[in-house]
Specification:
The protein is mainly α and 284 residues long. It has helices at residues 6-30, 85-204, 243-256, 265-272; strands at residues 219-225, 231-238, 275-279. The chain is rod-shaped.
C-alpha cells in the first residue's frame, strides 16, 4: 500500500482546480450569445361564449402584415474572465508534482526490478548450489556403491580361492590316500602272495605224488585257519580226477598246520576268512 503524502494532496487539489477551470471555459464558449428578432403576437377576442349546442365557425381574422423592423447585429461574445494568479500557477505545480511522482514511480519500479533481478540471481545461485550438492551426494553414493561392490567382489574372490584351495587340498588328500591305499593294497597283495607261496611251498613239500598219476591235473582246496595259522577245516572246491593225488594233497595240508601268516592283522584276517589253494603235481 502507498502512503499518502502532502505532495499527493497538493497534486489532487491542483488537478481539481484545473478541471473546474476547463469546465467553465467550455460552458462560456458553448453558449450562443445572439439576440433573436421580435415577432408579432396574435389573439382572438370573443364577446360572449358560444352555445354548447351550436356549432360556431369563427371567421378567420385577417392576418396583419408583419412590420418590418431592422435586424440588429448579434452582440459580440463576452471575453472570458481573467484567470486568477494562484490558479495559473497551480497547473505548473501539479505538472511538476506529477513529473516528480512519475520519476519516483519509475525509481520504485527500477528498484523493484533490481530487487527482482537480485532475487532471481540469488534463487539461481541457490538452485545451482543445490544441484551441485545433489550431484556431489550422488557421486559420493556411486563411489560408496562402487567401493562396496569392489569389496564384495574381493571377498567373493577370496572365498572362491579359499574354496578352490580347500577342494584342491581335499582332492590331493583323497588322491594321496588312494595312492597310499593302492600302495598298501599292492604291498598287502604282494605280502599275501608271498605268504600264499610260502604256504603252498610248505604243503607241496609234504605231498607225495602217486606214481601212476596221469597228466598234470589241478586240485583246489579251501582252507579255514585260526589266528595262529592252525588249520580248522579243509574243503575241496574242485577235484583233479585223480583221487590218490587229491587225498595226498589234503593230507599234506593237515600235516603242514600251523601255516605261516603275515604279521599284519588285516592281511592275516584275509587268510583266516578262507584261503583258496591250487595244486598241480608238476609245477615249475
Amino acid at each position: 500500500m502507498t502512503r499518502e503524502t502532502s505532495s499527493d494532496r497538493y497534486l489532487a487539489g491542483a488537478l481539481a482546480a484545473l478541471v473546474h477551470l476547463l469546465l467553465f471555459v467550455v460552458l462560456v464558449f458553448s453558449l450562443s450569445w445572439k439576440r433573436l428578432p421580435d415577432e408579432p403576437v396574435y389573439a382572438d377576442l370573443w364577446r360572449a361564449l358560444p352555445s354548447p349546442h351550436a356549432v360556431v365557425r369563427p371567421e378567420p381574422a385577417p392576418v396583419p402584415k408583419p412590420v418590418e423592423k431592422p435586424i440588429a447585429p448579434p452582440p459580440k461574445p463576452l471575453p472570458p474572465p481573467p484567470k486568477p494568479v494562484n490558479e495559473v500557477k497551480k497547473p505548473d505545480i501539479a505538472l511538476k508534482a506529477a513529473k516528480k511522482r512519475a520519476e519516483e514511480q519509475k525509481q520504485e519500479e527500477e528498484e523493484k526490478r533490481q530487487r527482482l533481478a537480485q532475487a532471481l540471481q540469488q534463487a539461481e545461485k541457490e538452485r545451482v548450489a543445490q544441484e551441485a550438492k545433489q550431484l556431489q551426494a550422488r557421486l559420493a553414493q556411486e563411489r560408496q556403491a562402487a567401493e562396496q561392490q569392489k569389496q564384495a567382489q574381493e571377498k567373493a574372490r577370496k572365498n572362491l580361492d579359499q574354496l578352490l584351495n580347500q577342494q584342491m587340498n581335499q582332492e590331493l588328500n583323497q588322491e594321496s590316500q588312494a595312492i597310499r591305499q593302492d600302495i598298501q593294497s599292492k604291498a598287502r597283495s604282494k605280502e599275501m602272495a608271498d605268504y600264499v607261496n610260502r604256504i603252498r611251498q610248505k604243503i607241496r613239500g609234504l605231498v607225495r605224488i602217486p606214481p601212476n598219476i596221469q597228466g598234470n591235473p589241478e586240485v583246489v582246496y579251501r582252507v579255514d585257519l585260526l589266528p595262529d595259522g592252525e588249520v580248522v577245516r579243509v574243503t575241496q572246491v574242485s577235484s583233479s580226477r585223480q583221487p590218490a593225488y587229491d587225498q595226498e594233497v589234503e593230507r599234506a595240508i593237515w600235516k603242514a598246520s600251523p601255516l605261516p601268516l603275515p604279521p599284519d592283522r588285516d592281511a592275516a584276517a584275509a587268510f583266516r576268512n578262507g584261503l583258496e589253494l591250487r595244486f598241480r603235481p608238476h609245477e615249475n
